[in-house]
User: What shape does this take?
Amino acid sequence: MSTDTAVKNSTPTKARKRHAWPWAAFAGIVSAAVLLAVAELLAALFARSASPILAVGSVIVDIVPRPLKELAITLFGETDKIALLAGVGLGAAVAAAVAGILQYRLRPAGAVVLAIGGVLATVAILTRTGAGALAWLPPVIGTAAGVFVLMFSTTKLRRWMTAAAADADTRGTDRRGFLLFTGLTAVGAVVVGVGARVLNATSSSVAAARDALRLPTARTTVTLPEGANWELPGLSPIITPNADFYRVDTALTVPNVDPTTWRLSIEGMVDTPIELSFDDLVNMGLDEYGVTLTCVSNEVGGGLVGNAIWTGVPIRDILRMAGVQSGADMVLSESVDGYTASTPLGSLTDDNLDAIFAVAMNGEPLPFEHGFPVRMVVPGLYGYVSATKWVTKLTVTRFDEVEAYWTPRGYSAEAPIKMSSRVDTPKIGTPVTAGAITVAGMAWAQPIGVATVEVSIDNGEWQPTTLSTPINDQSWVQWKYDWTAEKGTHYIAVRATDKQGNVQIEDAAPIAPNGSSGWQRTLVTVS
Assistant: This one.
C-alpha cells in the first residue's frame, strides 16, 4: 500500500487526534499569516489601499453600533483604532485556527473557510472608496497562497500523526517535515508581512512632498495678546501643540495625499461646478485664524478638545465662486477615504464666522493625522459635522435629501457646540496640600465667547474667577481661582456664562445625539 493511500485510509486514535488539533490550529494560523503577508506585499507594490485587515477593520468601523463606538472611545481614547485592529487580528487568528482544525478533520472544509475569508476581504477592499483597478490582486493572490499552505501543511500533519499512530519508522521524518515547513513559513510570513506594511507606510513620496512644501506667507496673522496664556502647572496651554492635539476619525490608517495631485471639487446646487488644485487654493491668499475644535465624543471635563492657529482660505469665498443656488441649506463634505459630514450652509457662508479650508496648523503644514494637505475648520460646530480631514469634495445640497456618515448612526444632522468648562488642576485623584491653591481650567463658548467662569466649593456660593485675555470668541480661554483649601475632601464645581448671558447647561446629557452637557464636579483631597 502506498504512503498516500495509508494516509487517506488510516484513522488515528482519539488521543492522537486531540494531540493533532493544536498543530492543526497552528497550521491554520500560519496559513492566514501567509494570506495577509502576500496580500500586504502585493498591496505595497501595486495597490496601497488593498490591505485585507485594514479593509475589514474599516467595514467594522462602519457597521459597529453607536454605543460600541462611544464605549471604544471612552475606554481606549485615541488608541481605539489600535484596539480595533488588535481585535480584528485576534478574531482572524481564531477563525484561522478553526480552519486548520477543520482542514485536518474534514478536508477541504478548512480550505473553504479560508477561501471564504479571502472573498470577504476582497469584497471589503473593492467596496472601499478609492479602490484602484488592481485592488483585487493582493487579496486574491494572498488567498490562493494561504489555501495552498493550509492544504500542504495539514497533509504533512496527517502523515506525521498517521505514522505516529502506527509507530512507523517515518514518524520522526514526518514530524520534522511538518515543523520545519510551518516554522519557516511562519517566520517568513511575519518578516514579509511586517516589512510590506512598513514599506507601504514609508515608501510614499508624500512625506517628502510635505517636507518640501513652502506655503505663501499669510496676509494676516494671529498674535497672542498679553495675558492670553498662563503657564500654570497642570493647566492646558492656550495653543495646543500639534503633537498633543486630539485625533478622532474613522480612518484606520492615515491617508497619504499628494498635494500635487490633490483636487477640491465643488458641485451640487451651484451655478458653476468648480475644481481647484492645491496651488489654486493657496494662491487665493492665506490668513491665520485661532479656532477651538471639539469632538462630539468629549465627555464633560474631557480632553477631546484643542485650540490651534489655523492657516487657510475662507470656505465662503469658494462657495461664492461656484454660486450657491436658492433652496440649499447643507453642504456635504467628503474625505478621500469616503467619510462625509453635513454642515449647515449658513455656517460656511456667514461673514462673521471663520470657516476655512486649512492648510497649516500652528505655523506648519497640516500633520498627516490632522488632514494634510487640506481639511475643514468650522467654528461653533462639533467636528463630526464640520471638521472633515483630507477633504476633497463639497456638494451643496439639502438636509432632507442627503445624510452624512454619522446621521444614520444616531447623531444629529446639525450639532452646534455646547458651552462648556472644565477643571484642569487640581486633578481628581491627586491629593493637594492645605493652604493657598490655584484652581484653574479651560472654558469655551463658540461662536459667542466666554464672559465669565464661576466655581463653587462644596456646593457653596458661586465665586467669580479670573479669565485670561481671549484671543477671540472662537477660541477657548483659561480661568483661575485662588482657594484657601482646608484639610478634608472637597467638591469643586465649575460653570461658564457666555457674552449673551446664557449659562452653561447644568443638566447632564450623554454624548449622543448632539454632545454631552453638565457642570463638572471634581473631587479633591486636601491633606
In short: The chain has three domains: 3-202, 242-409, 420-526. The CA atoms of residues 68 and 266 lie 34 Å apart. The chain has a mean pLDDT of 90. The domain at 242-409 is CATH 3.90.420.10 (Sulfite Oxidase; Chain A, domain 2).
